[in-house]
Amino acid sequence: MTDASATAAPGDVPTGNTYDKYGSTNPVVRRLMDGFEGTLEQLFSQAAPKSILDIGCGEGVLTEQWAERISPGRVVGLDLDDPKLASHWQARGRDNLELRALDVTAGIPYADNEFELVTATEVLEHVPGPEKVVAEMARIASRYVLVSVPHEPLWRVLNVARGAYLKDLGNTPGHINHWSKRGLVSLLAKHGEVVEARSPFPWTMLLVRVG
């Protein structure tokens, strides 16, 4: 993400975040997020799930929206054990929504085909062993997997252009994996049919049919 006007100090944001992208008032960031959210909505609507496992759910913003949308369908969100995340989760009470702490790199304890849709939005760039996580997502999904990641090397170029993270050649803190659109398609195509490959600037977003 390219928000040069983040207002939160590093200690004020939960695990995996450098700022609140959903709450940003920066007009450039809002335009980018509108493109991201609009594309995500299109792919979500195409998947039309009745149950969802959301990996790396963060504060649970999207997860709660999805739970409201498909109620009473089951929705589970997973992320790392972090008191800041937990404080957000406490405010997101819905009968069909469960938010729980789990390190998915150690395995995901759900059955084969347990959820119609398994998602990971802005997550895979952060996790060690992303191939294993993607394989687990495909195992658990009965119909679709939906993922988004920063489009590289465009993401880092944009960071450098705005003078961010220059010491790390524009790499956002916490990003340990980097994919071009072709590279992400190659990774996900091992587990199903890539039915949509979109590029909302500056991201790559895929919908994969696994069932």
Task: Provide the fold topology.
Elements: H1 27-47, E1 52-55, H2 61-70, E2 75-79, H3 83-89, E3 97-101, E4 115-121, H4 130-140, E5 141-150, H5 154-161, H6 181-189, E6 193-198, E7 203-209
Parallel strand pairs: 1-2, 1-4, 2-3, 4-5
Antiparallel strand pairs: 5-7, 6-7
List keywords for this structure.
211 residues; alpha/beta; Rossmann fold; seven-stranded mixed beta sheet; 31% helix; disordered N terminus
Structure description:
- The chain has 211 residues and is α/β, with parallel strands linked by helices.
- The protein has a single domain (15-151, 179-209), classed as Rossmann fold.
- Helix content is 31%, strand content 21%.
- It is built from six helices and seven strands.
- Strands 3-2-1-4-5-7-6 form a seven-stranded mixed beta sheet, with helices on both faces.
- Helix 4 (130-140) links the parallel strand 4 (115-121) and strand 5 (141-150).
- The longest helix is centred in the N-terminal third of the chain and has 21 residues, at 27-47.
- The chain is globular, with a radius of gyration of 16 Å.
Question: How many strands appear in the DSSP assignment?
Answer: 7
First-residue to last-residue Cα separation: 32 Å
| Secondary-structure element order, N to C | HEHEHEEHEHHEE
Give the helix/strand class. Answer: alpha/beta
- Give the count of helical stretches: 6
Q: Roughly how many Å is the radius of gyration?
A: 16 Å
Largest sheet: 7 strands, mixed
Relevant CATH superfamily:
Vaccinia Virus protein VP39
For the record, the CATH architecture stands as: 3-Layer(aba) Sandwich
Oligomer state equals single chain
| Beta-strand content estimate | 15-25%
Shape: globular
Number of domains: 1
Report the uncertain regions.
Answer: 1-14
The order of strands across the largest sheet is 3-2-1-4-5-7-6
Q: How confident is the prediction overall: mean pLDDT?
A: 88
